[in-house]
Amino acid sequence: MKKFKIDSSAAEQRLDRYLAKxxxxxxxxxxxxxxxxxxxxxxxxxxxxxxxxxxxxxxWLFLPDMVIDxxxxxxxxxxxxxxxxxxxYEDDDILIVNKPVGLLTHPDKTEYKNTLATRVQHYLKxxxxxxxxxxSVNRLDKNTSGxxxxxxxxESLKRYNAKxxxxxxxxxxxxxxxxxxxxxxxxxxxxxxxxxxxKVFIVDRPTDESKQIYTExxxxxxxxxYSKVKVFLHTGRTHQIxxxxxxLGYPIVGDVKYGGIKLKGITTQLLHAETLIIDxxxxxxxxxxxxxxxxxxxx
Length: 299
What we know:
The protein has 299 residues and is of the alpha+beta class.
């Protein structure tokens, strides 16, 4: 039998969701059964799965210590094969890193160990608790580089997630496109995602499955039939920039999925999340891949 005191990183969570984080190897059905059969109590009293934990509550687990330890065993930080991080900014609340091309932001069914999230959690392993891991506020596609914001504490993660949902965190991207863009453009439209191809499409009118997008594009420079542009996101949808630029007639170089041309030496789309604006603070880091390509293009 073990007792766990609720700190600020776990307060306000549902009891069943807290247990799922505390015991990551436990199945949902097991957790529900333990609560139902009084294997789990809060302050010595049986509670419902949806009970909201309060600061300084004590969760009692009436299970053998060996069982509890086994169910908790995967909560420690993984050690990725490569733990390199390009840190752009760090304070007590947040960490901003520049994600390289080819690295997943989060684990998925194809890769669990070597991701940006596992690198950050390895770096911030001292911040991991039984129910909290540093996590990202925004995400990028595997083959898009750029700035990703992580919350280092539960309270800061919650606060910055709220800012992101409220549109209070601005994201500016840089890209290199086919065609010479001479003036700023914008696109308000609706997109639908085709799961089988992992591709999104712009539709003529909204549907139950569609999501609204709003994208603005501004030219920075042109040369030899190409444009270097800045992209301002007012919504954050999957592949939004890629499909927007393709629809406007300026597909991103290297983005074959959305009509971009493939050039020698370019293995992925030339798209980079360059800037995050949070309140009155601006964080930026350029892509050396894009900058080098553009200098060579201009000769």
